[in-house]
Amino acid sequence: MESPYLKASGDLTSPGDLALFKARDLVAQLSSGAIPHAELVECRRLVNEETVVFDLWLEVPNRRAFPIRRLERIAASFTEADRTVPKVEVLRDDFPRVPHLNLNQQEVPPSLCLYDEPYTEVKRRWTSARFVRRVREWLELTATGELHPDHQGLEPLLVDFVGHIVLPAEVHRAATEQLVVNGIAPEGGRWFLRVRRRPEGESADGLAIVLSPHTCQPRTHGAVRRAPTTLHDLAEIAEEAGLDLIGELRGRLPTWRQEAIDSRVALIMSFPRTRTDGGPTEHSETWCFAIPQTVEELSVALGGWSSVDGVTGMLLKPDEGKRGQDVPVLVLNPCREMTRKAAAGLNGLGGAQEARVVGVGAGALGSQVVMNLARSGFGRWTLIDHDRLMPHNLVRHALPAAFVGSNKAEAVALLAGSLTSHEDSFFGLDSELQDDREEVREAVAAADLIVDMTASVAVQRYVARNLSSPARRVSTFLTPSGSDMIFLAEDTKRRASLDALEMQYYRALLHEDELAGHLQSGSDLQRYGRSCADTTGAMSQDLVSLHSAIASRKLKEVIANPAPFVGVWRVDPDSTVQHVAVAVRRVTEFRVCGWTIVIDDGLRDHLARAREERLPSETGGVLLGSFDLERKILYLVDTLPSPPDSEERRDLYIRGSDGLREELDGVEEKTGGMLEYVGEWHSHPRGASTVPSSFDLAAFDWLTSLMSIDGLPAVMMIVGDAPEPSLFVGSVGRLEAPIPERCV
């Protein structure tokens, strides 16, 4: 009597003649009855493959999602190399089309896809009993429709391919353009092909190709039963999905013959997939099928054209019998070129950030920050830097050695722009920011954000004060050792400018214990050229890379937050990163005697507290701050405690000097010389006005003489009951109630 089951591959052999360990062990376990609900049938051998056939009894309900029988015959095939999952086939030709079948060149017998993890992981836990139990579970869960749970992604249409192909981001638009394909031949692996646009007038460097996009009707997910090897096979798969592929190709071929008769064709097939019959489309699966024949050869193979004695002509009526039976197709796994939108999505962002950004400085930190943000789809950038890439820069710069000698801004823009396809998001300017160039002015005027990454105080002040633009400003830089990174961000309305935030950062260096040693020098300078200016400091690339990641992440956060920000990140010797946030205080600017005075509530509160602590006596001390003589700006930032030898009375304050010189030296050391002595302050008792007394006027005359030695104005502040102190600058000028021009 003829067996109702299919015959497994190979020749019959006795169990004792099996050589492979897993095949022998499975036979031993089945023969001994150690594996329940399973019975050995026979063994077979084919070259380096051994197959064990066994019957498997299943527990399946009467009403089933798929017609799995209570008894199924299984063939398990093992190979000598044991590098891939053993092949498991069901030996009946009417086995239903179910999810999770492996794709074979033949439809029967069907091969079960047992595992969703690599075989290298499965092998570690392999036993014959577990293997048979997994086969049994697979069949029983398939019978009930539970093998593919709702939370699991849809099963792919195809699972194998001969190579990868990178397609233009907009396939339908690219189908109308001149394209070439370049490939890397496989060496024991898969092909890797890349399709790119051929710029007008450029000679073809690669094989000319035509992309032909096609979209099928939605179908329930699941692998096809047989891998397509010819265009005819593919057309049958497409027909099952409601697409007349041959008809669409015949309609397009005449156009291609006019424009690209010698080009090859790549079919880009989209297969919308549903989880259940008639359900909503959950995913659209795209595959590429490459046809190695030219457009002309394909026209003949599809019966629309005929070739006689080397002359090809169009047939009035297509030969319907020619449907690509002799046209091979190669299955390729397609992926799209990177776009800014896709980059943002892969970085966990909602979409590409379209802010227009001017980046000033493309050095070590700046180049790495820009490349990080380019990979995040963040911003449309104009980079400004006049410097060239030198060999010694390579140890900390994002640019590779091929760019040595190139302008940093232009090269970083080129590299960042190359990450995404067909999008001009980066432009480099070989220029100083201070140069009066039209391109610089236009970029600054159109910017939403200006980011200073130069580590230059002069440039940062220029960014803060001299640029004509409503754009918000940000500054980020490293300390000399590279261990710390500073990040300053204005508010969106620019009420607290970069330079005012810089001063609050300096004040934090004097009061925050967490910032001790912040500006300590790095390693000694090293010479890279013969000029006296050709020196550079030693700094670890690890630190630059780490801080650039933090800075780029913070920049993405800042763009969504309108508030000002001052923060410091420190890397400890054990590589722990510590964030020190600096509270930003309200900033006020006003004019006195031709000077712009910048003060914030941090200093106001400090002086008010010092006065309260000494009442009813007067008190005072020195004022710490900074002069910008070029712009006539005076920054009032902090004060030192009244020296212990000071004279404090109810109606008089005479500042002492005990320990003051050491205190001032400490201020300059902690702030890198950015804060210094700028003047004096004292308080008046409760109920008294802040009108200067005769003693105050005499002290101011002394102060004026003292400061004039260095060409600086005298500064005196009197603090009383009024909310605003009285301020004197130079030899004249007083503003009891300043009118704020800018405040937070």
Describe this structure in words.
- This protein has 4 domains: 11-144, Ubiquitin Conjugating Enzyme (Roll), CATH 3.10.110; 163-337, no CATH class; 342-521 and 538-582, Rossmann fold; 587-729, Cytidine Deaminase, domain 2.
- Helices cover 25% and strands 28% of the residues.
- The chain has 17 helices and 36 strands.
- A hairpin with a 4-residue loop joins strand 30 (620-628) and strand 31.
H/I helix tally: 17
**Major beta sheet, strand line-up:** 20-19-18-21-22-23-26-27
Q: First CA to last CA: what distance?
A: 95 Å
Structural class: alpha/beta
Instruction: List segments where confidence is low: pLDDT < 50 over at least 5 consecutive residues.
Output: 527-535, 732-744
By CATH, the topology of the largest domain is: Rossmann fold
How would a crystallographer describe the biggest sheet? 8 strands, mixed
On the 0-100 scale, what is the average pLDDT?
88
Count of strand segments: 36
Strand-residue fraction?
Answer: 25-35%
Number of domains: 4
The CATH architecture category of the largest domain equals 3-Layer(aba) Sandwich
